[in-house]
Amino acid sequence: MNIAFFNTKPYDQEYFDRANSDGRHQIRYFSSHLDIESISLISDEEVVCAFINDNLNAEVLHTLKDKGIGLIALRSAGFNHVDMACAKRLSLPVVRVPAYSPYAVAEHAVGLLLCLNRGITAPIIAFVKAIFLYVI
Q1: Model confidence, pTM
Q2: What is the DSSP letter of 34?
């Protein structure tokens, strides 16, 4: 199966290449977002794998269907960036991640609260900007 991955980072490619170590699928990675301009990158792919920042509106979905795409796989639980009514009319299946771990989301929220409470963000920003005025 030929798969086009959009909006990918090197760490995405590493994991998907490892999962495809048997070479059963032909994967092409694109760092650009999927939108009406970047659809021209698709050649003979059958599946498009998109992320939350990609724009899958009706125009994009019609063009994907015309190019022979038979499945859209989302690397996210959310699907509000996809025109689901249009996908249904086009008989274009959309699959997604079923859910995120509620524990992971809660732990991340607590971590962010601790950063705010402890004032960790200001020294990080100063370090990035090479302003070494903070005294511990």
Answers
A1: 0.73
A2: P
